Amino acid sequence: MSHARSEYEDFKRIAPDVYDLVLALGQLAANAGLDKQLLELVKLRASQINGCAFCVQHHVLLSERIGVPVDKLHLVAVWREAPIFSPRERAALAWTEALTCLPDGVSEEVYAEASGEFSETELTYLTSAVASINVWNRFGAAFRWTPAKRPVAAAAAAS
Where is each Carboxymuconolactone decarboxylase-like domain found (predicted)? Predict the structure, then answer.
């Protein structure tokens, strides 16, 4: 089992300017009107690829709070094989993978699929969301931030 080298709260304390900048970058896509559920799927997929346990858990919990169907959360790692994802979600997930794993750049096919589903402005903001989560993943994976625990439901806690 790995152990945290430092924690998320330490990052906020040690480098508040960096924290604020990365946080602001991550909020731009939602502020520009991109669907929050779609953005959470993108952030979850990038976090899975990058092996950031803190970010995977954070985006699973956040996705649940904003109503992302549980089946999508369970299947996002294998989205190509799961018919539950819309063409727009598939394009966003393919774009996310291409930008997260860049050894060969972004193929014409992935670009065509993404630009067919997203306007030029939307694709630019989607790219900012992918860039942001990849930055968060670099910090979370490097410092092995401890994933949040699932909140205990009030009803379960009362029994």
Answer: 16-98
